[in-house]
Structures are given as structure tokens and as C-alpha cells.
Specification:
With about 270 residues, this protein is of the alpha/beta class. The protein is built from eleven helices and nine strands. The longest helix is centred in the middle third of the chain and has 21 residues.
Length: about 270
């Protein structure tokens, strides 16, 4: 019998790549995201691979929608084996420019979105004494990255969530895995919040960066994620994340000013003039 994976943020980027990677390796897929048209397009690609695909538009910020999602998904497929939490919103700009609404937008998606799906699906996993939870985190959940404070706050919270969940749920037969990519060639900038006087320049900077051939692809992250599921790995750094987190820990005095200059932009220029 085929296994079934539920993937959030499944309509593009790492989520879509994960959906297709798992489908290629025999999984049926429940695809979750907010935009119905993109979601159904991704589901169609899964079906062309010969697997079952169920597109269920859901805003993971809303716990009631998530509860309905899980009930509907279990009713359709019977058993869910893997949950991949991936939906996220990015922030770039000075921390003082982040409104309370910005903070809530980031945390409600990046943290509460994960909590909502885990909480809704956990009774299903516990009743079976089996299941896998994969949280796509970020190098931002390991290292102090300035000018992304709401985003890295959310990712540090996910690191704690992932590790503490694993400690509690492992004896109950549930595997919990954290995936830590660096910057990946995705469309993360589409829904990102850019703030500050040079918000337009920040967008252009990130647009160019996310189209750089130097960055790893969503497909590479998806392959790493599948391998982590199959081999029950715990915390997995993806590609260049190994290098960057090592540099942050081995040479913080070097890395911190470099990263501040890169992401600070006009803010950093003012500090240099002083």
C-alpha cells in the first residue's frame, strides 16, 4: 500500500519540489496551500506521475481551517504517514520597521501554522503509534541573522519545537525531523515583507539573489528531505548550510559584520559614515 504525505506550502518552491519528489518515490500526496489554482496545477503534476493527489486549499494560520483539512484528508485517504510543514513568510528590513501586524503575520504562518497542523494530526499518529513529522526550518533557526529578526525569531522557535517534539514523541513511535536549508532558489520573495526606507532595493537584491545559479535548488532540498524521511534522520543541514553555520560558530567576529553589511544595506552605509 502506498504511503501518504501531507505537505503545506505545496504550490511552489520547496513545497512543490517535495510533493513531486515524494510522488516519484511512491507517495500519494495531500497538497496544502492558500492559492487554489497553483495548488491544483501542482496536484495535476503529481497525477501525471501516477500517484493520487488531493489539493485542499487551506490557510494554516487558521486553526479551524486546519482541523477541517485534517478531517477531510483522513476521510479521503484513510491514513496519513508523513507531515511536511513548509509554509513560510520571509521578512527583511530593520527590526524597528516591523509593525506588530508584520510580527503576527510572520509568527502566525511560520510558527503557529506548524503548530496547528501538528496539533491536528498528532492524535492520528499517536493512535497508530507511527508517523513522521518533518519541519522545514532554515539556517536562520541556527544562526543570528540581522535584518531578518521576525523571520529568524520564527525559525529559532521552530528549532526548539522540532527538538523538543522529537524528545517527547520518539518513544511513542513518531519520528520528528528538522531540515535546515540556506538560501534556496525559490519565489520566497513573492510573499515576503520588505521594510525600511530602502525596501525596494531590498526586494531587488533578494530577487537577484534568489535567481542566482549559485544557490541550491528546491529539488535538491526535496531530495535531502526524502532521504531524511527514509533514513529517519533527525537534524539535517542542506548543502551550503553546513559551511555558513560552521562559519557563524567558528568565526563569529568575522561573519557578523559581513552579514550586517549585506542585509543592512542603507542602514549599514549610515553606520559606516559614522
Amino acid at each position: 500500500m502506498a504511503k501518504t504525505a501531507l505537505v503545506t506550502g505545496a504550490s511552489q518552491g520547496i513545497g512543490k519540489a517535495t510533493v513531486l519528489e515524494l510522488a516519484k518515490h511512491g507517495y500519494d500526496i495531500i497538497l496544502v496551500a492558500r492559492e487554489p489554482e497553483r495548488l491544483e496545477a501542482a496536484a495535476t503534476e503529481v497525477r501525471t506521475l501516477g500517484r493520487q493527489a488531493y489539493a485542499i486549499p487551506t490557510d494554516v494560520q487558521d486553526p479551524a481551517q486546519v482541523e477541517q483539512l485534517i478531517q477531510r484528508a483522513i476521510a479521503q485517504v484513510g491514513t496519513i504517514d508523513v507531515l511536511v510543514n513548509n509554509a513560510a513568510i520571509y521578512y527583511m528590513g530593520p527590526v524597528e520597521e516591523a509593525s506588530l501586524n508584520d510580527w503576527h503575520t510572520i509568527l502566525d504562518t511560520n510558527v503557529w501554522g506548524y503548530i496547528h497542523t501538528i496539533r491536528a494530526l498528532l492524535p492520528h499518529f499517536l493512535s497508530r503509534k507511527n508517523g513522521t513529522i518533518v519541519n522545514v526550518v532554515s539556517i536562520g533557526g541556527l544562526d543570528p541573522i540581522p535584518y531578518q529578526v521576525p523571520y529568524t525569531t520564527s525559525k529559532h522557535a521552530l528549532t526548539g519545537l522540532t527538538k523538543s517534539l522529537r524528545s517527547e514523541l520518539e518513544p511513542k513511535g513518531i519520528h520528528v525531523c528538522g531540515i535546515y536549508p540556506s538560501f534556496i532558489r525559490t519565489q520566497l520573495y513573492e510573499r515576503a515583507l520588505f521594510r525600511g526606507e530602502d525596501a525596494k532595493n531590498r526586494f531587488e537584491f533578494m530577487y537577484k539573489a534568489f535567481h542566482s545559479p549559485v544557490l541550491e535548488t528546491p529539488e535538491y532540498v526535496a531530495q535531502t528531505l526524502r532521504h531524511a524521511i527514509e533514513h529517519r534522520q533527525k537534524d539535517v543541514l542542506v548543502g551550503t548550510a553546513h559551511f555558513w553555520t560552521a562559519m557563524f560558530h567558528l568565526a563569529p567576529a568575522v561573519m557578523k559584520p559581513i552579514v550586517r553589511r549585506v542585509f543592512g544595506m542603507a542602514d549599514s552605509q549610515r553606520n559606516l559614515v559614522r
